[in-house]
Design brief:
The chain is of the alpha+beta class. 32% of the residues lie in helices and 36% in strands. It is built from four helices and six strands; from the N terminus they run H-E-E-E-E-H-E-E-H-H. Strands 1-2-3-4-6-5 form a six-stranded antiparallel sheet. The longest helix is centred in the C-terminal third of the chain and has 16 residues. It is globular, with a radius of gyration of 13 Å. The protein starts with a helix and ends in a 5-residue tail after the last helix.
Length: 109
């Protein structure tokens, strides 16, 4: 999977310089971590967003947002937003705010 540097920049701008934020190459794309916990990612196939198990139902109702999977394994609590979905500034912000709220509730690593 190839990286999407344009999406990486959108995420970088949206997340700002908050304390505890780190970036690294993962899963064939670029991952953003908060206090050592995966938050979101950018790949050529879309924006990956961690909402937490049981917190993703609302997002799956949105056009362009699907359940994330790794091969045949469904990744409950994670969604993938396509370019149309993450290209909508308000929707991207809503997904990222929900991811931040969830990941900020986790203990740091």
């Amino acid at each position: 999977m190839a990286r999407d540097r344009g999406l990486e920049e959108l995420l970088r701008e949206a997340l700002g310089d908050r304390p505890g934020l780190a970036e690294k190459s993962m899963f064939g794309g670029w991952a953003f971590l908060l206090n050592g916990n995966l938050l979101c990612g950018a790949r050529s196939d879309g924006m990956l967003v961690r909402l937490g198990k049981g917190n993703d139902g609302w997002a799956l109702l949105l056009p362009g947002v699907i359940q994330m999977s790794m091969g045949e394994r469904v990744m409950h609590g994670w969604v993938r937003a396509n370019a149309e979905a993450y290209g909508d500034d308000a929707l991207r912000r809503r997904l990222l705010d929900a991811a931040l709220a969830y990941v900020e509730s986790l203990p740091g690593k």
